[in-house]
Amino acid sequence: METGLPISVLLVDDHEMVRIGLAAVLGTEEGIEVVGEAGSGEEGIRLATEYKPNVILMDLVMDGMDGIETTRQVLRLLPETKVIVLTSYLDDEKMYPVIEAGAFSYLLKTSRASEIADAIRAAARGQSVLESQVASKMMNRFRQPQAEAPAHAELTDREMEVLRLLAQGKSNQDIADELIIGIKTVKFHVTNLLAKLGVEDRTQAAIYAYKNGLAE
């Protein structure tokens, strides 16, 4: 953005009273200029390409094209524009997709006018702003422990074949004959798979295989 010019803002919301209210409060903020208002996602895309605003205040739930798809299409056309989501919704199925679509900041409509203005100024400086409840939800999501991969996920395809035959009660020689490999190679694979599964002997390995549906 050129120094000295006001931050141009486009409002995209299908509620006229919301747009009127936002235009009124932002009109009193120094260095911020509302250049247009759109009542739908489709109109938002048209006005965005016409005015090329620095910042778009984007509603999420609108008739026709929603804010997620509108954000995606606007940023495909105007990648330098910063989209600030301004919504009443805090549910995961809306929040995460619009952030993935490229939304720069996420605010709730309960935010004070000064907070919205500060978020616009921050966006113009390249700084994202997340409303506290949004930030908390995102942190909690990433703090959730990920399910650990089963021990047998570390086994190679050949080790898995050896484990299945071992679970059938076959000897090293039987396994070597069936897989057409040397008996030393079988012993090598058995030693490796026991270590990877964290078991002490062939019997425990066989039990592991059956418990985890790896053997018939």
Main sheet: strands, sense, barrel: 5 strands, parallel
Strand order of the largest sheet: 2-1-3-4-5
Query: How many H/I helical runs?
Result: 10
Distance between the termini: 66 Å
What's the Cα radius of gyration?
29 Å
Helix content: 40-55%
Query: Which structural category do the helix and sheet elements fall into?
Result: alpha/beta
Question: What is the tally of beta strands?
Answer: 5
Question: Average pLDDT, to the nearest integer?
Answer: 90
Q: What is the CATH level 1 assignment of the largest domain?
A: Alpha Beta
Corresponding CATH architecture of the largest domain:
3-Layer(aba) Sandwich
How many separate structural domains?
2
Give, in order, the helices and strands. Answer: EHEHEHEHEHHHHHH
Organism: Paenibacillus kribbensis
InterPro entries: CheY-like_superfamily (IPR011006), NreC/VraR/RcsB-like_REC (IPR058245), Sig_transdc_resp-reg_C-effctor (IPR016032), Sig_transdc_resp-reg_receiver (IPR001789), Tscrpt_reg_LuxR_C (IPR000792), WalR-like (IPR039420)
Modified residues (4-aspartylphosphate): 59
Domain HTH luxR-type: 148-213
